[in-house]
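Justification of computing resources. Each target in the renewal requires a structure prediction run like the one illustrated here; the chain below, 209 residues long, is used simply to show the kind of job we budget for.
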Amino acid sequence: MPALRAPSKSKRSTPSGSTAGTRSGGTLVSACWTTRARSGRVVMRKTAAGRRTTSRRRTAMAPKHHPTPLSGGDRKALAKELGRARAMTTILAAQSSEARAKGEALIRTADRLLCESWNERMWANGGPIDPSPTIDQAINGGYSWLEIECSRCKMRRDVDMATLRHPPTTFTHDLASRLRCSKCAMANRRPPATLLQLAQRPRQAAPET
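Resulting structure tokens:
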């Protein structure tokens, strides 16, 4: 009596470019099995030649500046030093910002005192106008307005030095030969201006341009 044979399980071929579903969620695409990973980062592929390839997405990381020591004690010491260096980075940056703020405050105070000293000299003696603070020093010290007087018609004007086109390093006494009275200019006269004092706010309604 002939022995009974179990029916052989034959794989059905799928045309190229078609897909077939599986219980595990795999998909047959062009004779290549693809298994979905749970985390979505690891992907296993089985090619037609029978090779299995695994691809993993790696997050870009900065290269290590210090090589990892072989000794466990050295690794602990290195980790401790790296942690202290990272902490000192934040501390030193905060100290730098604080020192810079203090320095800017001191410079602002020095510029204000320089403007006040020039004003006292001009009020007491009327000069000499040289030396004088620069435009940026006067603005930084809070004295951005310059009170001038026309040497011909004696009309006073206030000049906003922040709007002048002169370089910020221009000295205030150099503006005496560069500023002109608009009233005298209509009469084709260009007399030089007389510098009176620096001010924190304008005292006259019409500024000199």
